[in-house]
Input
Amino acid sequence: MYDMKALHEAKSVADAVRLLQEYPQAQIIAGGSDVLVQMREGKRAGAELVSIYGLDELRGVTMEEDGTIRIGSLTSFSHITKDPIIQKYLSVLGEAVDMVGGPQIRNIGTIGGNTCNGVTSADSASTLFAWDAVIELTGPEGIRRVPIKEFYIKAGKVDLRPGEIQTGILIPRKAYEGYEGYYIKYAMRNAMDIATLGCSVNVKLSDDKKTFTDVRVAYGVAGPVPMRAVHAEAAGRGLEVTEENIEKIGDTVLEDVTPRDSWRASKAFREHISKLLCKRALREAIRRAGGMISEAGPSGMAPKALDNGDTGTAGKKEERTSVLQSQEASGVSRHTIMTDSESEKQYKLVRCRINGVERETMVDVRASLTDMLRNDYSLTSVKKGCEVGECGVCNVMIDGECYNSCIYLAVWADGKEIRTLEGLMGPDGELSDIQQAFIDEAAVQCGFCTPGVIMSAVEILESGKEYSRDELRKLLSGHLCRCTGYENILNAVEKTMKKRLGKL
Ligand SMILES: Cc1cc2nc3c(=O)[nH]c(=O)nc-3n(C[C@H](O)[C@H](O)[C@H](O)COP(=O)(O)OP(=O)(O)OC[C@H]3O[C@@H](n4cnc5c(N)ncnc54)[C@H](O)[C@@H]3O)c2cc1C
Ligand code: FES
Ligand code: FES
Output
């Protein structure tokens, strides 16, 4: 159970604004991948929440008449990466958010949450800075639009006024037209790790591709909030596209960045990689923009073949994987999940389909979906491990996507289709092909992680796509196997995928 005082579920944006005014102490919860983890850790203990998770009007990416790209604040990372508008115009943003956590986190985490948490390491933030994004806020006074650099006030603090919610992120046409970009996340691990440093670069080249018309360099973790390297940008504008000038721009970032020492990395190391990542990102952005880097400028040495030398976890473009209500209760508020005065608990009726069967039960609003599935439905394949979204043992499918049920409120399951390992078996208990493959490949040792891994495998297999081994590794990266049988797990998933596709 989460240590939560009350949960108010918004029915519309206007309703969310009203609820925030009615309950001024309440905190907004979108996907909950920060809020629920912090609650579990005691940092938001006893909090009152206004849930905007059900506001589908805030999901999706659209292009407005004037070419402005609008990203609804509740759009999840995985949906941003897969979105055709993002892929066509802002591919670097899709790549950047494809580096967040692991697949289950990318299914639940929203871009609104990633920017409203005010965190410098947020993987979307530096790229949004590099795109000159505008934050749209809706509150009691109406709609307000704030340039992203003004939205961040200080570490963990953004310009959200009482009663306001972020409703969208806007990228004006002039901010992206003619630009190409690249994002590098430098982290200790390829998945489930936040950035030691993130660098996002955009370039606009002249028609003959020989001059930087514009350069934008943005960072995460190079200061208390995401930032632009304005001196480096000014140094680059109008310069010839040469290796010498890339070095110059990269070296100038030291006039802008102000990283600190932390247990992840020292200030000196962050300064060092600030320069390196800028240069590497510039080279790749130039390549994407159709430019050629001249070795020594206009005097005429042969253009240099580009080498993308990332040591971080950046996704190279060619390797890019596009892998990836409320209850009408009488009382305080029609949206408030009512307090049962006798038990001091709060309940809501949750109707959903679980493994193909219509179910309904009263759940405590403080319960996670793991609690509901295990306690109310005895679905013990859904394990409890870290309970903060990191290990994947509680992974289940919700409406066809995988989620760590430990950081998913049980009340959000209302109206959803949920699948667990138990639902994979045939009517007489026959194992599904993927379960059998885990046995055949000895992919199971203690078995604790296995149900969660298999549910991720189901999402992979049901996509009907053929993935490379590296792509499969990334798609399974939201799981920790304490017995470390990763190779056998990969073999089982790969073989089943090939069998289903008639290739084995
Ligand atoms: C295991 C794990 C790994 C992670 N790895 C990464 C990573 O690699 N990179 C990374 O950047 N992040 C990572 N995160 C953090 C998290 O997933 C992201 O910050 C995510 O974007 C938060 O979105 P959410 O919808 O879950 O936000 P929530 O937890 O619901 O909210 C986050 C904050 O934003 C506020 N908020 C949310 N939406 C709005 C809105 N529309 N208007 C106003 N305020 C709002 C909330 O009040 C809260 O303060 C990780 C989290 C976990 C649990
Ligand atoms: S991710 Fe849910 S228990 Fe670890
Ligand atoms: S098989 Fe033991 S934790 Fe994975």
Notes: Residues 384-387, 389-394, 404, 406 surround FE2/S2 (inorganic) cluster (ligand 2) (CB under 6 Å). The chain is about 30% helix and 20% strand.
